[in-house]
Automatic annotation (TrEMBL):
Residues 147-180 form the 4Fe-4S ferredoxin-type domain. It comes from the Bacteria. It comes from Shinella sumterensis. This is Ferredoxin. InterPro entries: 4Fe4S_Fe-S-bd.
Amino acid sequence: MNASGHHLETIRAALRPHGLFLRGVVNFADGEAAPTLSNSRPAASVVLIGNIGSSLWPAFSRWRRSRADAGGPDPLDTWSKDVIGPIAAMAGATAWFPSDPPWQPFQQWAMRAEGLKASPLGILIHPVYGLWHGYRGALGFAVPAVTEPVAQPVEHPCDACRDRPCLTTCPAAAVRADAFDVPACRSHLRTPQGQGGCLRGGCLARAACPVGAAYRYGDDQLRFHMAALSL
Ligand code: B12
Ligand code: SF4
Ligand code: SF4
């Protein structure tokens, strides 16, 4: 199968029951650095797959309840492979996952596919979904995919954000305009305040962002993502 508009619709339909979305398409020019397909040839296009708000949480939670081991040590990564792997096989595509080293540049792909830019937290901010979205996989094709009619946002929400609450809310001052201080964040998360605060209720700086508040993850999902961080 190739990545024509018709086939993108088939992929979109296969993702829907799992609360996953086709987030965008990147086409690589001839000679441009591109990821390598399973047949060792360079990909001509990458189709990005992800969640919008907590869209994946109901399907993922059902899947976990159906498993004796609740999905094992990295359940979201395992679920993503369980769901996206067969869709890749059906589409004749190579699948990549954000958690698999060597890390594929998911955020660079998303910047191209969706016109997004990074927030001070390092996470890409979307003008509608804010910081409440992520990427669960990507499909690589040997032929260019039909370019999605994704609106290319020209405005980066952080440029218009006067108060920048994400920069002042972090108790560890880990979120700065120029860089995200991972060790400072991790040290705080190991303290009793961090355990009772961010680790239990989610990153305070992320929650302080006013953009896309309607897409904020639920408490269970926030706790799950924080618990997945290795301290
Ligand atoms: C390593 C990693 C981390 C490290 C960051 C270490 C560092 N300083 O780079 C740690 C473990 C700290 C981390 C944390 C988080 N991460 Co992270 N992380 C990754 C991972 C696996 C690889 C990034 C990378 O190096 N890629 C390789 C380079 C070549 O690709 P790239 O696209 O050019 O890389 C960009 C990133 O490195 C980014 N970047 C640079 N510094 C930082 C720092 C942070 C914290 C982040 C998130 C990104 C980031 O800028 C690069 C240029 O575009 C990606 C998945 C992936 N494969 O990209 C997820 C990813 C970037 N993480 C993600 C998320 C959501 C988080 C968390 C919010 C998770 C959570 N708790 O909910 C937290 C951040 C908040 C917090 N309080 O910690 C999402 C971002 C989605 C988005 N909307 O953009 C990704 C894409 C995973 C996914 N499945 O969607 N992460
Ligand atoms: S609070 Fe403002 S600066 Fe921070 S991520 Fe949200 S929009 Fe960007
Ligand atoms: S998780 Fe807590 S300590 Fe880490 S960046 Fe977010 S607010 Fe700061």
